[in-house]
Amino acid sequence: MDFLLKKFISMFLMPLPLGVFFIVLALVLLYRDKTKPAKFMLTLSILWLFFFSYPPISNTLLYSLESNTPTLHKAPENIKYIYVLGGGHHTDMNLPITSQILEASVVRLNEGIRLYHQLDEEASIIVSGYSGLFDPTTHAVMQKKLALALGVKQEKIILRPEPRDTEEEAIAAKTLLGERPFILVTSASHMTRALKFFKNKGLNPIPAPTNHLASTQHLDYTKFFSSGALEKSRIVFHEILGLIWQKVKGI
């Protein structure tokens, strides 16, 4: 119930759905001859969509999340586990394996494999993620297929196909890792929230953020209503809502 509630809330409390809601509300007010409130809501909706789809703004917001944790350039010695957090995937088997995993998942796994090779392939890579509501193939299995294709030894891949979100991934990690230090790989924007979950369970993660999306140089200040910028704002909203949820739960 907790998981489904989070998904339902996050589905609507995003920049684009909220902007559309403001427009619909403006039309309803206009239909009821409430001209002044309708003009206000329509103006608000335009400003709202402009603000969160303007690249300089969305990049600044996203960078504030991604810059919280520095990149792990060199893996510490004697680390035996690398936990690569899960995500979504495609399961069209007519596509090559690298096309079946969403880009963010590919980047995360590549970072895990980079660190794996630095440890002379002595560490094990943990991949996790459930199958979703209408998908028979778990994300963990898809990540394993990609890891094998990229040269990771089968005996060095540990599957955790049950977790549906980061909190459940932390619970699964506690059972396997205990208090042993390990490398935690996830998207830079998600790392702050992920660390809270893992440390709350008494784990000792070494953060290895990747998939940095915020651009702070060569921004186009003349580009308006950018879909790419709107997606970056969506990521920011998703993480901020997640952080608020953690506070509500006392994490």
TrEMBL record:
Residue stretches spanning the membrane: 12-31, 38-57
InterPro entries: Cell_Envelope_Assoc, DUF218, Rossmann-like_a/b/a_fold
Keyword Membrane included in the entry's annotation: yes
Occurrences of domain DUF218 (ranges): 81-242
Entry-linked Pfam families: DUF218 (PF02698)
Coiled coil: none
Keyword Membrane belongs to the record: yes
Keyword annotations from UniProtKB, A to Z: Membrane, Transmembrane, Transmembrane helix
Domain of life: Bacteria
Name the UniProt record assigns to this protein: Envelope biogenesis factor ElyC
Species of origin: Sulfurovum xiamenensis
